[in-house]
Amino acid sequence: MAQDLGTLGAVEVVAAIGSGTVSITDYAEALAERAAAHEGLNALQSFDADRLPGAMQAARDAAPGGALAGLPLVLKDNINSTDFPTSGGTGALLKHVPATDAGVVRAIRAAGGAVGAKAGMHELAFGITSNNAVSGAVRNPTDPTLIPGGSSGGTAAAIAAGIFPAGLGTDTGGSCRVPAALCGVVGFRPTTGRYAGDGIVPISHSRDTAGPLARSVDDVALLDGVLAGEGTAVEPRNLSTVTLGVPRGMFFENLDPAVETAVEAQLSVLAAAGVKLVEVGFDPIWPHNEAFSFPVVFYEVMRDLPAYLSEHAPEVSFDRLLAGIGSPDVAGAFASQQGDGAMPEAVYRAAMDIHRPEMRRIYGQVFEENGIDAIVFPTTPLPARPIGQDETVELNGQRVPTFPTYIRNTDLGSNIGVPGISLPCPVTGLPVGIEFDGIAGQDRALLALARAAETAMAR
């Protein structure tokens, strides 16, 4: 019974609880059993099996007709919630219980959803492996010796393992989509600003967003509707009316053979289903992307993170936070911004005032000139690699930098603020993701396209 309940998606759980087919007590017990069975994944940072039934019942009672009535979600541990600590995966905040919920949590509660657990993550969301020296490494459910991706690795692992049906991560440069790809689930980055951004341990206010993860597009669409206040149903797009741009340059270069095989197979499936595939190029965009990506992150984090502490954890100074960082890669990143190494304001202003507008212009021009609905590409150039390879990983016989390699394909969408969704490719080996990126503000249209693509790829 517990195994069967663990396979239910979010939409199915809401319907089953609403109809009385499944009791809250039975469902909570099933999730608790799965959490215990998969404890070795270290996917959950905070979880209380005894509290779960009561939390679900209270959530449903508070909004009995809500879209999420009774649904328990797992939230990345950088999203404020008053019922569990919000640690950001770092030492100084391990016991930090916020006085208020994040905006996205308020939306979840208003729809009758419950915070079922907080998920492990890369320390301060400043990495892509979820190998956290403070709270321990999160492990991939497909192979526990491998990374789940990051920084929302715990959320993705918990959903892939069936511990929770859906949840939230955050995405600055790919942190919802990368772990979705590596764990074999669906990960969505909405248009920047689509969801409330308050009450989240920040990196960059210009790039950060919460994002849903689940095992189906329908479940992601359910959460997106709640978080964005758009409750209309998402009907799958007729694929014979869809034109997708295939950006071979950069996005398809130097791919792991398993990724290349899986993604090319799905492009053929989509073409057979009626999708028109058009090769497109973004060559002029890459110098602007490089001039924007890390300069904005480094400049803003040194201001946004102290501001978060001042508002939500005034007992923790920025110096104390920095002293409590345990992961060498994260400590090194913050150390690089001390003293003369700090990102100059002039470089930041050029990124915001020159490079981002130009990226958005080029991106929109490619869409308009080619008449495309979205672009499609491998979410990551390679599948999961062994835990501990935080500096470099092997790709086609060469050692390459871990962080920039994994976010190579997801970074652009983050920088220009457009919606992107990673779907799992049907594979027999390690999970591989295929991503669709659309136009800013057209999130529901992208979800409709993704829903149709998901159906075609599952045949």
From TrEMBL:
GO MF annotation list: hydrolase activity
Occurrences of domain Amidase (ranges): 29-447
Top-level lineage group: Bacteria
Keyword terms of this UniProt record: Hydrolase
Gene3D superfamilies membership: Amidase signature (AS) domain
NCBIfam families in alphabetical order: PRK07488.1 (NF005688)
The protein's name in its UniProt record: Indoleacetamide hydrolase
